[in-house]
């Protein structure tokens, strides 16, 4: 029993597919002109959920970077060391890009500054309470969420079609890179710490906290813009998340994937979505070329 609790390297590492690279790319979009606050399917409820997540990203992704940095020198696998550098670079660009978006959204009346400040405060407090190992476990767990969201978008092109053009490139870019580096934090954790119970404990508290903070900020955004009284938009949004039909139940369909993380031999690359990653990379390049020409 004790040996089980101390078990190291619970999961044999699956190498990322050779057609996937973890290279940081800057997006550098300009969000000031033509930004639409109700950017997702013209629905204020769904848009508020994504704004709430987006405004938590800058502090959140810096937390992930710091955790990986704490263990970077202890990684024993050279390829993983390189991937960890790629992960840090990609997350740093994500944090900067979402910070730019937050500034533009603040000018549209969305309280992203409040969300950013709260998230920074909360993560500072969490860092003082957690050991570095627990911080790394939380990072590996949180990366499962961003990987699930990224995979959800990449596997369903209609989801990108519902995104207003001012946000589309950001969504595609972030979804691609979250999929590219989906195993890095997990592998760093397995390589340097490897305790299964510690990872599962982190998964439980990070998922509860993320749902709680995202719900709270979504309500705050909707109270501020008055859409909290828009029952039609709320019902449409709930159907999008948990309902039935081809354009419904997107979060409901993620539930089995949430639970796969509990499997002791789970590995993020057991589901190879490299073809989707590469398809969307081409779409993104075309989109960015088009923007340059415009
Ligand atoms: Fe990210
Ligand atoms: Fe990530």
Structural class: mainly alpha
Q: Whole-number radius of gyration?
A: 19 Å
The total of beta strands comes to 0
Estimate the strand proportion: under 5%
Q: How far is the first residue's CA from the last residue's CA?
A: 63 Å
What share of residues is helical?
Answer: 55-70%
Number of helices: 12
Query: Which spans have pLDDT < 50 for at least 5 consecutive residues?
Result: none
Distinct small molecules: fe (ii) ion
Instruction: List the helices and strands in order.
Output: HHHHHHHHHHHH
Please render the helix and strand layout as text.
Elements lengths: L1 H4 L38 H29 L5 H30 L4 H18 L2 H23 L2 H5 L3 H16 L3 H9 L3 H30 L5 H12 L12 H6 L13 H20 L1
One fe (ii) ion binds next to helix 5.
Q: How do you describe this structure in short?
A:
Helices cover 69% and strands 0% of the residues. The chain has 294 residues and is mainly α.
Protein described:
- By secondary structure, the protein is mainly alpha-helical.
- The chain has helices spanning 2-5, 44-72, 78-107, 112-129, 132-154, 157-161, 165-180, 184-192, 196-225, 231-242, 255-260, 274-293.
- Helix 2 packs parallel to helix 4 (112-129).
- The chain is globular.
- The N and C termini lie far apart (63 Å).
- Residues 91, 143, 146, 178, 181 line the site of one fe (ii) ion.
